[in-house]
């Protein structure tokens, strides 16, 4: 069974058709990127796949679980990093990750905190209040909470946001190694260069529909993405500092 499958998924917010018959199949071990301009339906897709939002119609399966029927089971099984989410300002990264360890029933949470704070290079600020951390440091803590329970499927909305170029390269390596170990990663981005550099397959979404799926090496060989040029990759992810 694929890691993720949707059939004719729709989501309406009143008169807005956020998803309009979305068909997705993502196999285990893929590093799949959903690329699309602002408002194309990426966040709505992730929210439905992770049991946070109920679709208007259509079928969904995530690790063989139906997130509409069993949202808690899906959230237990996967890692999630929503866009623009921070650790609570009044907790230190260590306290926050211990809290995540409690919620996720992780027996050896202290060892995992050591492991992930080392990998993501924030050991030095483990005991600093999150309110005093930079945006990039907070993003690294949030990335750690995605992986700390070693899920086999992870959803990340805009994965490299707020990271400096060196850290972006480190995170790319971590995400790639994670998929090479047989796990699956679903990420969304509106930066073409993130999709090109990171993904093994890219789906292009516009107006809630999957327009096409591409090998990242031939992402724009026919100039299709020129139509989204101002929104997609119109500025460099590195220059923008928020890919
Ligand atoms: N809670 C909501 N209520 C009403 N409309 C919504 C809601 N959430 C999203 N929408 C609308 O649904 C459409 C898809 O939004 P969504 O956030 O899924 O797009 P996106 O591709 O993630 O955008 P972005 O790149 O800006 O994060 C947009 O038109 C948006 O305004």
TrEMBL record:
Keywords: ATP-binding, Nucleotide-binding, Transport. SUPFAM superfamilies: P-loop containing nucleoside triphosphate hydrolases (SSF52540). It comes from the Archaea. PROSITE patterns: ABC_TRANSPORTER_2 (PS50893). Pfam families: ABC_tran. Residues 4-232 form the ABC transporter domain. One of its GO terms (molecular function) is ATP hydrolysis activity. Belongs to the ABC transporter superfamily. This is ABC-2 type transport system ATP-binding protein. It comes from Halovenus aranensis.
